[in-house]
Specification:
Order of helices and strands: HHHEEHEHEHEEHEHEHEHEEH
CATH class of the largest domain: Alpha Beta
Helix content: 40-55%
CATH architecture of the largest domain: 3-Layer(aba) Sandwich
Distance between the termini: 51 Å
Number of domains: 3
Strand content: 15-25%
Radius of gyration: 23 Å
Shape: globular
CATH topology of the largest domain: D-Maltodextrin-Binding Protein, domain 2
Structural class: alpha/beta
Number of helices: 11
Largest sheet: 9 strands, mixed
């Protein structure tokens, strides 16, 4: 097996059509089919099933596709790091982002990094929390940000940013009678919440907040992005939650942000990294992260 086999398989798996995959790879369809059969023979599994209705991935094919992409990503990162070193960079920091990190915080951090250490390249990867943990364990990333701190052995999760939790309410909504909205009033209305599988950390923190009231909330929709939450809130589907930092850079004319009354609920962002001695570049990065959160 060589890297060409992996590239060929990924193309077919993404296109689910041998003809389109061959065109994408700029090769004939026959050698592509032979390569896939050879790959399946070497692995001893069926990766793709061809029927009269088309081509589909088997479960083994789905698992192999994820690993094949990871192998090629490692190769591309190795090439990038070598090229960066040849042009004078002291290093590249690979930073993973999960759970929709507040843009205002990230903007301030990246600007400070460029100002203080412009020769260090920072590459960002937006991925689910579960993949961030795997990537940190497998040396795909140097550090990452998430709203979850339930990490595996060998990973450190440090709370770095704390932002007040606010309620996102449609304009002309009864809750706007409150300058600070009681949480027990919020849960009387349908909620638009982040999806627990896509935004794992955000969902966990909101679940802890909602458990402080006796009323069982009604969830109108689960969404994968902050923007979609605001869109549905503006359309009147329900009430949402956000952090003050998240809403700083977003001005939606049909959504009003209100602080919560009583307890000061916070949305915490964690910096995740392998539990070992960080490089000089990563130590400097961590120092800037804490400075932005101060």
């Amino acid at each position: 097996m060589d890297l060409r086999h992996l590239r060929y398989f990924i193309a077919v798996a993404e296109e689910l059509h041998f003809g389109r995959a061959a065109e994408r790879l700029n090769i004939e369809q026959s050698p592509l089919s032979r390569t896939i059969k050879k790959l399946e023979s070497e692995l001893g599994v069926v990766l793709l099933e061809r029927t009269s209705r088309g081509t589909r991935l088997t479960w083994a094919g789905q698992v192999f596709l994820e690993d094949a992409r990871r192998v090629l990503l490692c190769l591309e990162q190795a090439k990038t790091n070598a090229k960066a070193a040849s042009t004078g960079y002291r290093g590249t920091l690979r930073i993973a982002l999960s759970d929709g990190i507040a843009r205002s915080r990230l903007t301030a951090l990246l600007a400070l990094c460029r100002e203080e250490e412009p020769e260090v390249e920072i590459r960002l990867f937006e991925i689910p929390f579960s993949k961030q943990l795997k990537g940190l364990s497998n040396d795909l990333y140097d550090a990452g940000f998430a709203l979850a701190d339930e990490v595996e052995d060998g990973i450190v999760a440090e709370p770095v940013w704390h932002d007040p939790l606010v309620v996102a309410v449609p304009s002309r909504h009864p809750l706007l009678a409150h300058r600070r909205v009681p949480l027990h009033e919020v849960v009387n209305y349908p909620l638009v919440l982040c999806h627990p599988e896509v935004c794992e950390g955000c969902s966990q923190q909101l679940e802890r907040v909602l458990r402080t009231v006796d009323t069982q909330p009604v969830v109108a929709e689960h969404v994968a992005t902050h923007d979609l939450m605001l869109t549905l809130v503006a359309a009147g589907y329900g009430v949402g939650f956000s952090s003050a930092a998240h809403l700083e850079a977003i001005h939606h004319k049909d959504v009003v942000a209100r602080p919560l009354a009583g307890r000061s609920f916070m949305m915490t962002t964690f910096l995740l990294r392998p539990d070992n001695e960080p490089s000089e570049q990563l130590r400097n990065f961590i120092r800037r992260v804490n400075h932005v959160g101060a």
